[in-house]
Amino acid sequence: MDLPTLLLVAFATLVMIILLAVVAQRLLDVRFGPLRTFLAVVLAWGMAQPMLEPILGSLGLLNGAEPPLGAALGVLLLVVMCMVLIPMVLLVLAEALVPPGSVPGPLELLRSVRGRVSRARRYSQITRIAIKHGLGPYLRGRGERLEDRSGQVRLARSLRAALDDGGVTFVKLGQVLSTRRDLLPAEFVEELGRLQDQVAPAPWEQIEPVLTRELGGPVEDVFAEFGRTPLAAASIGQVHLARLHTGESVVVKVQRPGIAVVVAKDLDIVRRLAATLEARTRWGRSLGLRDLAEGFAAAIREELDFRVEAANMAAVAAFDGACVTYPVPFGALCTERVLVMQRLRGKPVTAATREQGPQLARDLLDCLLRQILVEGVFHADPHPGNLMLLDDGTLGLLDFGSVGRLDASIRSALQRFLLAMNRQDPLGVTDALLEVVPRPEDIDEAALERALGQFMAKHLAPGMDSVQLFTDLFKIVSVYGLSIPPEVAAVFRALATLEGTLVRLSPGFNLIGEARAFAGRYLAEQVGPATVKESVTHELAALLPMLRRLPRRVERIASAAEHGRFAMNVRLLADDRDRRFVTGLLHQVLLTVLGATAGVMAVMLLGTEGGPLVLGSTSLFQLIGYNLLVIASILVLRVLALIFRRTRD
């Protein structure tokens, strides 16, 4: 075969393959990936000859005899439909056995291999750390169940040591877990709370290029003075003192060089590890590790972008801080890796005297409750390290990398929850709680109401302290299978952290009494004359247009009823989505009926004896039966392809 003929054959083959691919996709009415379709058609092209030879042989076409014109057209139709049927069968089988997305594409596979290679060393390091601290069996889901407290304490210590050795991401993971009393036993919460995030500072030679690149020029051009020795250092960044050319003293937070790459790789490992543990272990499924890891990853990514922290500081500082001061960011100098903010002068809050403690605790509680219930923007991590005792004796709140936001509906439900707690109303507390969290379908509301009543009787009675208050509340939420939304979980997490901070500021602090006093003050504000007048004015302004139209509409309805013309017009399937659903369902039913009918007719014709012979011993009835059988197969494949695709969607 000469070259032009070979090229012509190759071109004709390519055209046939493309034509088969287009026809197969159109008949199945499902869009497949180009690579999957091409492979199915090429494979079908190679399988066509060995599969069609037995069929043509049974029809007597391989002995050199020439069939009549009508029979030849019937055979040609049969061959064409078989050529289309083979790739359709392959595509449907692939859709059922290997759905799209279950096997990565070439580019995704290449990226996956490169990612696996880059993660291999870190996986090995983490595994060695886990085995070193005796956590290997628990990672495989084979760890022993520890019922006694001493065993749980030992395991908690091993976990804390392993997270501490794992580096910045795992240290912060442990710090987040230490606030989740709704997920972990008290022994783990207490032990993980000891994790420290203090590390050796990065040398100035590494920090200066970051500042120069982020600020767009040398440090001397931006600052009149800049302290090269850091005031404090953590795993993500470190803090330096500086002075602007305008004279203001500022604090400059600089992100460590290269930390973003390390954290991104560790977060990928944390997500994969959480997914594996949730799939293979019972305790992983009970904790919901996959969702926990996703929330943690989102929080860490925000913490790596100092522009988010600057925006959080500005949002919180926009409201009146009362007895708590917030540092003001210098927005023009804040970038992704550099944060410049006002310097607050003072000392650690733990240095407060016994006389100062109760008032500072009251100020902090009032500030956070007002942020949560009134303003909707709140500091989500109020531990002692993020607080300062300023020189004027007031509190300073630092580190706004973790800030929660609540919409008006959640704030309203939390307000009702707190007010119902103040009244010790179990029914009101239950209703408010079920507005805050998604309501499960099978929840026993009466039992939940009794549990909350017992909770209030235990913690809200006169003379009772707040020890284990949030721990017991978290237990009730967990026992009744209530799924807490992330923004509400941030509230509970902040309040649980606040509880420990208040006790540290003022041992014996009456959290219950102060919170109830805040609820009383807030209720007084809500029912004050000015507030009531404003609420009534707004409601009347919204109702007035409707009230104006109401008499005319009532008169029309009454007149129509009086004269016997009152009627109701209801349009079924008015929504276009409903019409599309019903239409698709009818199409599937119709295709199924047609396919079944064609199949039954094919079987009947193939089993019918007699009839005119058109191809050797093959009668016309049998030839029509073969064609109907292929048509039935095509219709059934179309229905199956739609079912597999829609089931997965």
TrEMBL record:
- Coiled coil (residue ranges): none
Keywords assigned by UniProt, alphabetized: Kinase, Membrane, Transferase, Transmembrane, Transmembrane helix
A Pfam family the protein falls into: ABC1
SUPFAM superfamilies, per the entry? Protein kinase-like (PK-like) (SSF56112)
Which chain regions cross the lipid bilayer?
6-23, 35-52, 72-94, 581-604, 624-644
Give the InterPro entries listed for this entry.
ABC1_dom, Kinase-like_dom_sf, UbiB_kinase
What are the recorded GO MF terms, alphabetically?
kinase activity
Superkingdom, natural source:
Bacteria
> The ABC1 atypical kinase-like domain covers which part of the protein?
194-429
Q: Looking at the keywords, is Membrane present?
A: yes
- What family is this? Belongs to the protein kinase superfamily. ADCK protein kinase family.
Q: What is this protein called?
A: ABC1 kinase family protein
- Taxonomic source organism: Nonomuraea purpurea
